[in-house]
């Protein structure tokens, strides 16, 4: 006789992801979209570029959850509130694939010297997260995902794409729905 699994023994499937993100301003997002289309054609990639309003830099993941955990949201809001820094410039000047997902490799914008202020900002946010009991991401490769593709594209130099980072957000991502809900936004002043 086949035994049926007992309810409650399989962990529930996460429905929501919490993240701190940076979104490019609309002009930079349009340039990123145009570059994604150009590179897709030049490199003969098959993946579809992300929607223009979905381009972002992930600063930190706060975890995947079943539903929206109010305590983690509160801690994220406290970390965001505590971070005081001036706006800064970010510049991406190359595109390449991450080869970490066989058959579904992220093709990304990355940068050299132009992302150093971004790295510093991410580290400052990590310190504030730790103060409120959140676990910051240890590894950080600043990037904007353009599309996902089976092919691994080699590094390509591109005309620099940059913007002034003047805000960051705490986002609830509805897993599998390609939907971001901004829970809180902070302006950088200085």
Question: Can you give me a brief rundown of this structure?
Answer:
It contains three helices and eight strands; from the N terminus they run E-H-E-H-E-E-H-E-E-E-E. It has 190 residues and is of the alpha+beta class.
Strand and helix layout:
Blueprint lengths: L15 E7 L3 H17 L14 E9 L4 H13 L5 E10 L7 E6 L5 H16 L12 E6 L6 E10 L1 E8 L4 E9 L3
Antiparallel strand pairs: 1-2, 1-7, 3-4, 3-6, 4-5, 7-8
Helix pairs in contact: 2-3
CATH topology: Cyclic Phosphodiesterase, Chain: A
Strand content: 25-35%
The SS-based structural class is alpha+beta
Question: Can you write the helix and strand succession as a string?
Answer: EHEHEEHEEEE
CATH architecture: Alpha-Beta Complex
Oligomer: single chain
Q: Let me know the average pLDDT.
A: 92
Strand order of the largest sheet: 2-1-7-8
> How many domains, as an integer?
1
Largest sheet: 4 strands, antiparallel
CATH homologous superfamily (4th level) name: Cyclic phosphodiesterase
How far is the N terminus from the C terminus?
Answer: 70 Å
Number of helices: 3
Structure description:
The strands form two sheets. A four-stranded antiparallel beta sheet has the order 2-1-7-8, covered by helices on one side. Strands 5-4-3-6 form a four-stranded antiparallel beta sheet, sandwiched between helices. It contains three helices and eight strands. With 190 residues, it is an alpha+beta fold. The chain is globular, with a radius of gyration of 18 Å. It has one domain: Cyclic phosphodiesterase (Cyclic Phosphodiesterase, Chain: A, Alpha-Beta Complex). 24% of the residues lie in helices and 34% in strands. It has helices spanning 26-42, 70-82, 116-131; strands at residues 16-22, 57-65, 88-97, 105-110, 144-149, 156-165, 167-174, 179-187. Mean pLDDT is 92; it is low at 1-5. A hairpin with a 7-residue loop joins strand 3 (88-97) and strand 4.
